[in-house]
Amino acid sequence: MLGLVSAKTTPNATPLHNSFRQNDNHIHKNGNKTPSPLLKRTPSPSFSKPKTKPSKKTLQELRIDESSLDNPDLGPFLLKLAIDTMASGDNQNKALDYATRASISFEISSGPGLDLAMSLQVEAAIYCSRGRLENAIPVLERSIEVLDHKSGSDHAMAKFSGFMQLGDTYSMLGRVDRSISSYESGLKIQIETLGDLDPRVAESCRYLAEAYVQAMQFDEAEKLCQKSLEIHREQNAPASIEEAGDRRLMALIYEAKGEYECALEELVLASMVMIAAGQENEVAAIDVSIGNIYVFLCRFDEAIFSYQKALTVFKSTRGDEYSPVASVYTRLAEVYYKTGKLRESKSYCENALRIFSKPVTGIATEEIASGLAEISAIYEALNEHGEALKLLYMAMKLLKDTPGQRSMIAGIEAQMGLMFYKVGKYGEARSSFENAVAKLRASGDAKSVFFGILLNQLGLASVQLYRIHEAVELFEEAREILEQECGSCHSDTLGVYSNLAATYDALGRVEDAAVILEYILKLREEKLGTANPEVADEKKRLAVLLKEAGRARIRKGNSLVNLLDSSS
């Protein structure tokens, strides 16, 4: 049978564990919003406290009238009670009861309109605060239905608010695709109402760009971030704080796309703004991001210098137990491993673990879990697989199996599966990969590059367990996703092609396998030239298959320049 290719073994392959560090960008999120493995988010510009008209009736009169929900004074009174009770935090059940009855009263007394929409949005917010996210969805959908954004700016902005709140709720449920769809609908209404250059539109563009980054749709994220940057440069003074925020997000997008020089340029510009504004901690955070880019560019001395600068600031402003200090220790451990200084690498890992094992108050469990997973990857590279697995299990225990955290748990399970696969525990590897795939499917994240690579790894584990038919289905699905997201010439896509050819060969589908290998060889010849060792290996594999199929290779004419080295 032809050899198999792991996506992890290709030089430019996307790693299975999370490559986006949550602490690098310092984009903060709403406390109720669970972050994805990719980045933390700012709160959406969605929900604002509705203005309710004070009732002229006394409390006793309203209590008497409460039996009749068509009383026009009852809805505003109950809505005010709901908001006040929710703000006090005393009895959320009572707040929910007030809000529900307010919505019913508005529905009966005044029908669809602004008051009903506001009441429904308050009701949904209370559902979310109590963790009843599924209950909030139909309430928010109803709040959007009862409004006509063409009836005035108040109606339009309330509808925008409903869409953004709905997007946040879908995001907390892990339904990334529906979340983005809701944000897009809200942004469209906001632009129609406020115009293209309103600063509030810039805020929404950046928020939607962050959502696209979470979904690994980097081209769309770049367009929206660029629009936000243009608005801020038009509306604000030169080198504003808002512009610096846009540039940091743009740097994250460029990093994800592998455009490291562009990312470095954006970070340097953002750093200059923050230095001028006297934002010492923000400058240190940007220094960490700059260090990350230097690592990608193999400029390790400059990376260490950037990390040490950030470490000095974090220690002096927050103390030695501050979580970003642990994050910098992890970055230093990684760069020292890459430069062959294994003793120093392990020492920095231990320093980071000391902070994560006894976290100070206020560190989110997701941040600790992410830190443990990153340290685990370094221990794995040091061939200390037992310690690496122990840290991953610790990270899993910190996370709850809630919809909003499933993507992060899936990333950790994928990392565990890869580790099991490397040490030959194929059953455990397959189980971990299967769990990760199931969680990502449930989260609506079944079209990303990461998901395609994960399917490839699950297929490889299935082959090792002689489940060839199952592996074929997995490789075919992975091929479809990676062709769509990366293109047919990407190294990850070619790896899946090769694996699919090998499984076709194992099933006796020699002709199908030969067709795929001919395609791979054609691409490699065009890209690498005929003298490249990879091309020679593919030729040998193809020759074996063609001999079995009893035919010669189908060739198309190529210029001598392309055959030798098309990349030049």
From TrEMBL:
Biased composition (Polar residues): 7-22
One Pfam family here: TPR_10
Transmembrane residue ranges: none
SMART domains associated with the record: TPR
Region annotation (Disordered) ranges: 1-59
Matches recorded under InterPro entries: TPR-like_helical_dom_sf, TPR_rpt
Name of the protein: MalT-like TPR region domain-containing protein
Species of origin: Populus deltoides (Eastern poplar)
Organismal lineage: Eukaryota, Viridiplantae, Streptophyta, Embryophyta, Tracheophyta
